[in-house]
């Protein structure tokens, strides 16, 4: 039976580790597998800038265009890195790539629902209680709101010899 597995990726090492873990542990199947791995990058929406901010700084169209170009570059780099990890995997894997605009919490939940994925895999940044209280946890939000099973993969600390 074919599965569709959604992996949320960003530019961090945590999502790269989660993707590698997913490939090694969930995608190890027989050669005729019809499983699909969907790589999702949630691109933050472009901020709305008024021509002059409160400090008197003038945002020209060139600056805004440069900021958008940089945002596109970050998205491409994250997806290229994820695609490279998939290519290094020794089994043939069908990979789809999706880039959506919006808050990662909402984007991941919406895409999981829209694509009717069987499984969601995410990395954990390992924020402490205080930091998580202020900025929130994307993985916690998704685990509470997505209808499919969610696997949060925590990258071991560099001194952890168990992996």
Automatic annotation (TrEMBL):
Pfam family, one: Usp
Domain UspA residue range list: 1-154
This protein's name: Universal stress protein PHOS34
Record organism: Sesamum angustifolium
């Amino acid at each position: 039976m074919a599965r569709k597995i959604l992996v949320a990726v960003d530019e961090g090492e945590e999502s790269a580790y989660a993707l590698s873990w997913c490939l090694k542990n969930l995608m190890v199947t027989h050669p005729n597998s019809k499983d699909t791995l969907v790589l999702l990058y949630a691109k933050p929406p472009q901020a709305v800038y008024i021509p002059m901010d409160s400090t008197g700084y003038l945002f020209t169209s060139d600056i805004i265009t440069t900021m958008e170009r940089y945002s596109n570059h970050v998205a491409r780099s994250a997806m290229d890195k994820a695609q490279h990890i998939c290519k290094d995997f020794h089994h043939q894997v069908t990979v789809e790539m999706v880039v959506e605009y919006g808050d990662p919490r909402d984007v991941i939940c919406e895409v999981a629902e829209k694509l009717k994925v069987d499984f969601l895999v995410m990395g954990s940044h390992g924020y402490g209680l205080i930091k998580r209280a202020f900025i929130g946890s994307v993985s916690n939000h998704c685990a509470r709101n997505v209808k499919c099973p969610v696997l949060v993969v925590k990258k071991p600390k560099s001194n952890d010899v168990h992996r």
